[in-house]
Structures are given as C-alpha cells and as structure tokens.
Design brief:
76 residues; 3 helices; globular; 24% strand; alpha+beta
Length: 76
C-alpha cells in the first residue's frame, strides 16, 4: 500500500519532514503537493506535512520525528 506525503511548495516544515522520513528509513512514498487543489487544500490546509498510509487511511500529522514515523510504519 502506498505512502503519500502531502506537502506544499516552499514549505520549510515539509523539508524537515523529508529529512525525518529519510532518518526513519521510510519506504518509498509519493509526494503530493496540495497547492492549487481545492479539495486537498480544504482537507489538509495548515496540517501539512501529513504522511498518509493509503492502505488503511491512517494519517500522521506534523510534527513527527523518526520514532513516531517508525511506530506509524510498524502498524502496516
């Protein structure tokens, strides 16, 4: 099941999230930029970055660290 990182352009928190995901050795994920998408803006707005497991629809909102990501991924 794919992982998705919802993010924005020019988002320093999103850059930090990418670093955390690398430190947590997260598997491959898709990056989806919410800018300009009304539905995604309404759903995620100020919450980004958000890591979503599309298989079971769980979401991990920022702020998260490598330990939280590892725990989140262990439930897959």
């Amino acid at each position: 099941m794919p992982l998705i990182l919802f993010q924005r352009d020019n988002c320093h928190l999103c850059d930090l999230a990418l670093d955390v995901l690398a430190r947590a050795h997260a598997p491959d994920f898709d990056s989806v930029f919410i800018d300009g998408d009304e539905a995604l803006e309404a759903r995620y707005g100020e919450r980004v970055p958000v890591l979503r497991d599309d298989g079971d629809e769980r979401e991990l909102d920022w702020p998260f660290d490598a330990q939280k990501v590892t725990g989140f991924l262990s439930l897959r």
